[in-house]
């Protein structure tokens, strides 16, 4: 069967490909950033080549806490750093989103959909957000069902374990993985059959072929896992309603059953919404109930909600012959699923023609999370502790089967993923219609948004792999390889240590390491809204129209989410027992007594989405109008719109650098262990001259105290200091395309961009100084000119304002050895290391003789000669610039017998002109110019 392509809106999309780098030398312009983001895979490096790709995967800037001293909201620094990198000339970077183990993905109920596991267990179906965090709080999900009619010629269903067999007329054919529904209207039975095998037949003859059948009319489909349903009426009985809320289950007492629906003991704000699945249980029966509508009941002693919908009974086997005689005709349909995602008033994003069984090429459960998508695109099969959970089917077959669906959800990135199953599950529609009418939000969580982001507490553990926190430089590579490949439960590294496997990275920055810690702040509760006044009674003692009556008031509005943030959206919903034809009037006020209330909405629906509210408390109430009659107002609702997270930064005077020192020490060790990385470091914004100098000294102090389990860089590890460069102060920069907007950010992102641009234009051996930084309009704080020399002596690279713009006039690492002090020297050595490894692989398995030594000598002399021609080395000629040693003094007969061959490279790095002092001396009427170096 040829499956229909997914429908897309017409339009043109331009894919921007990053230009290639035509150079035989290894790339030295690739940066890596580690920090906090709204969405995206956790602890997995993802390559990014433009800002649009970053935002599509990692989302908008993540709000963290409020700075009470500045009266402003503080955001994560990862996104601004990436934007600064590309704006200043960077072309490619890796991004690692980090968070604590408390980070959670939102769960979304699939309206009207039932999940059946491989063992036959039934439960409501849920989808996951594609990544952890609170970014998906505003999303709502609806399902639709597409039913393509088939002609049912015959069917048979043995009473035992034999397969159910359907003979249908399917012009487009069938294939395994399809879901067929047969409805027997006379008896109220339905059959849901996941197709396992297909045969094309000719009427009156046997089977002619098997497997995928195309352009055939008569098809025989078989399945061993049918599900028989029967429409049922909920009769009077002591029922209990079980309502799955993600990983938990709520028990709702059914107070009364009537023709009007079920009465559940619960508050309307916590009641099941239309599309929810309830399991009704009594002593004698078990039913699945799909909620069609719900509304509160007034005048009850306890909060009560009435729900209406449809109930079905899942039969344990084939129906009795008396209920469904053989040969009974039914309506046969081929079912596919549609998923619709909306956020507020935006146009819904949808996926259609999705399969409901794992063998279907467009099986919705194969929608990948961000972490799964990264593994698939990198060709990594799941390993370690997640092996059993993620290899639900043969991984190679599954990856190939669902490849086209994953490609479709990549651009734009679909926000949901399949449920994390331990076994392949089929999904069965109970109350899914053809239109997206029932949207459900995520399962509410008792945790705050920042807690679900995994960032409730700021500490160094967010950025480091705990198993590698205190490991020294020499032992670090071995420990990392053991964790990844040799331990009893291999796993990927976390935090900044995840970058150890990315060979093209040469610059590393952690812009979020310089945050001040934050803490939760309790907010004062809003004032309760004024109780509603009763409606004015008609003059019953006078002649009135026969239709005159007292309209009951609407229910109290419900806000979703209940406490929205400023400038975000939230939805108000309410119900009314007045009936159809009524007009609802929604009012908003900023006072609890509704003085100055204004009308927001007047119409027939019971829902309104609001957006663009500033911080504060808003009060809402609703009344109904019908035929000139006006009801009383509903009970009021107070909605507190916050300025952001209910978290505040600690004061500047309480700041401790222990987190920052631990993170930067671990980063320097990792860079030194790799040997070809440069850490671009930054300081907290409030650090002025003395604190900046003290912090640089603390990084270099070999006898400093241990910070959060990370020891100082000892004397034997002082070489690691040459792998780090410290930049200060912070930048006040504009956003590209929005010059009226400015924000403060650490300098490490722009510094990486400048270094990358310099490398691409002229080479990694040139000093990345005296280059204008783009987008910078001011510095924060502006450091005293009298302390510039002190800061330079402390190895702090100052960003200064000069006539040509904002730039640095130094390029210092933290090195103790003055020969390794310049950044360009460390970068040149890293380039040589990579080039030597790249060239050395061509000599593997060659015989170790005199001709081999000459071959190696010529190869490395050619490599270094090319660098000398480009200006990487000092000296008048190659003999003064470099030397390649492969002689017998280095390669002794004993080392040759052991199969080893050594090459020693000696180079003289070129040095930039640091300062040029020009002195103007006036003698009489003439001016004399002297030049000094």
UniProtKB/TrEMBL annotation:
InterPro entries: Tail_sheath_structural. Residues 519-539 are annotated as: Disordered. This is Tail sheath protein. It comes from Archangium gephyra.
């Amino acid at each position: 069967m040829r499956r229909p392509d997914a429908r897309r809106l017409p339009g043109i999309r331009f894919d921007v490909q990053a230009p290639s780098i035509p150079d035989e030398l290894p790339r030295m312009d690739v940066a890596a950033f580690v920090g906090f983001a709204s969405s995206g895979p956790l602890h997995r490096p993802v390559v990014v080549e433009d800002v649009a790709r970053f935002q599509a995967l990692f989302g908008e800037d993540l709000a963290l806490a409020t700075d009470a001293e500045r009266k402003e909201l503080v955001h994560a620094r990862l996104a601004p750093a990436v934007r600064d990198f590309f704006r200043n000339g960077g072309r490619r970077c890796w991004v690692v989103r980090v968070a604590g183990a408390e980070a959670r993905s939102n769960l979304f109920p699939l309206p009207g959909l039932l999940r059946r596991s491989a063992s036959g267990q039934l439960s409501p179906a849920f989808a996951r957000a594609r990544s952890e965090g609170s970014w998906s709080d505003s999303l709502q999900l609806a399902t639709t069902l597409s039913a393509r009619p088939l002609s049912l010629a015959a069917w048979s269903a043995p009473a035992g374990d034999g397969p159910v067999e359907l003979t249908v007329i399917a012009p487009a054919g069938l294939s395994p993985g399809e879901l067929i529904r047969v409805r027997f209207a006379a008896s109220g039975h339905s059959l849901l059959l996941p197709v396992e095998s297909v045969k094309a037949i000719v009427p009156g003859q046997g089977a002619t072929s098997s497997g995928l059948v195309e352009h055939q009319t008569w098809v025989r489909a078989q399945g061993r896992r049918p599900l028989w349903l029967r429409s049922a009426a909920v009769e009077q009985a002591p029922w209990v309603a079980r309502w799955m809320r993600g990983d938990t289950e709520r028990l709702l007492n059914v107070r009364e059953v009537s023709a009007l629906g079920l009465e559940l003991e619960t508050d309307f704000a916590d009641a099941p919404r239309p599309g929810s699945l309830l399991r009704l249980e009594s002593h004698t029966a078990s039913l699945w109930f799909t909620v069609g509508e719900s509304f509160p009941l007034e005048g009850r002693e306890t909060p009560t909600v009435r729900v209406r919908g449809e109930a079905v009974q899942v039969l344990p086997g084939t129906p009795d012959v008396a209920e469904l005689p053989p040969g009974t005709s039914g309506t046969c349909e081929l079912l596919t699923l549609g998923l619709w995602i909306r956020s507020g008033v935006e146009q819904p994003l949808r996926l259609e023609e999705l399969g409901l069984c794992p063998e279907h090429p467009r099986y919705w459960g194969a929608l990948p999370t961000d972490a799964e998508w990264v593994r698939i695109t990198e060709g990594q099969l799941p390993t370690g502790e997640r092996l059993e959970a993620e290899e639900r089917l043969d991984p190679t077959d599954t990856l190939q089967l669902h490849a086209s669906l994953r490609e479709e959800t990549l651009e734009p990135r679909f926000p949901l993923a399949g449920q994390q199953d331990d076994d392949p599950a089929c999904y069965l529609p109970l109350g899914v219609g053809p239109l997206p009418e029932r949207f459900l939000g995520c399962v509410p969580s008792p945790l705050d948004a920042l807690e679900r982001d995994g960032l409730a507490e700021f500490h160094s553990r967010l950025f480091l792999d705990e198993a590698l926190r205190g490991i020294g430089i020499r032992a670090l590579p071995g420990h990392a390889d053991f964790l990844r490949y040799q331990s009893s439960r291999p796993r990927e590294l976390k935090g900044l240590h995840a970058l150890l496997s990315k060979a093209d990275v040469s610059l590393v920055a952690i812009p979020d390491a310089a945050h001040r810690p934050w803490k939760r702040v309790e907010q004062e509760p809003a004032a309760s809204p004024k109780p509603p006044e009763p409606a004015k009674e008609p003059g019953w003692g006078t002649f009135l129209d026969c239709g005159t009556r007292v309209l009951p008031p609407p229910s109290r509005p419900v806000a979703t989410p209940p406490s929205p943030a400023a400038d975000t959206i939230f939805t108000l919903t309410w119900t009314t027992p007045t009936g159809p034809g009524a007009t609802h009037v929604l009012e908003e006020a900023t006072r609890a007594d509704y003085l100055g209330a204004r009308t927001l909405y007047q119409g027939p629906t019971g829902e309104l989405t609001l957006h663009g509210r500033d911080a504060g408390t808003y009060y809402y109430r609703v009344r109904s109008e019908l035929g000139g009659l006006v009801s009383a107002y509903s009970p009021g609702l107070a909605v507190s719109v916050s300025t952001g997270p209910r978290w505040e930064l600690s004061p500047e005077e309480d700041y401790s650098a222990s987190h920052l020192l631990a993170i930067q020490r671990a980063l320097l060790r990792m860079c030194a262990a790799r040997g070809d990385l440069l850490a671009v470091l930054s300081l907290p914004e409030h650090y002025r001259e003395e604190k900046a100098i003290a912090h640089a000294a603390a990084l270099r102090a070999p006898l400093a105290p241990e910070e959060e389990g990370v020891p100082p860089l000892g004397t034997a590890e002082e070489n690691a200091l040459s792998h780090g460069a410290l930049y200060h102060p912070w930048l006040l920069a504009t956003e590209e395309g929005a010059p009226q907007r400015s924000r403060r950010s650490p300098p490490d992102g722009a510094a990486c961009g400048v270094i990358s641009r310099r490398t691409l234009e002229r080479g990694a051996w040139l000093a990345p100084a005296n280059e204008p930084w783009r987008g910078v309009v001011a510095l924060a704080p502006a450091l005293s000119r009298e302390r510039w020399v002190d800061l330079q002596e402390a190895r702090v690279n100052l960003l200064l304002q000069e006539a040509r713009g904002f730039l640095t006039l130094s390029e210092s690492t933290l090195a103790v050895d003055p020969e390794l002090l310049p950044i360009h020297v460390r970068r040149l050595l890293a380039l040589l290391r990579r080039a030597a490894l790249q060239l050395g692989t061509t000599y593997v398995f060659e015989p170790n003789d005199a001709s081999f030594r000459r071959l190696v000598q010529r190869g490395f002399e050619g490599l270094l000669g090319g660098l000398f021609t480009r200006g990487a080395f000092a000296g008048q000629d190659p003999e003064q610039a470099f030397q390649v040693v492969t002689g017998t003094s280095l390669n002794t007969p004993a080392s040759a017998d052991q199969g080893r061959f050594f090459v020693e490279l000696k180079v003289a790095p070129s040095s930039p002109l640091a300062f040029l002092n020009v002195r103007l001396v006036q003698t009489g009427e003439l001016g004399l110019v002297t030049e000094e170096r």
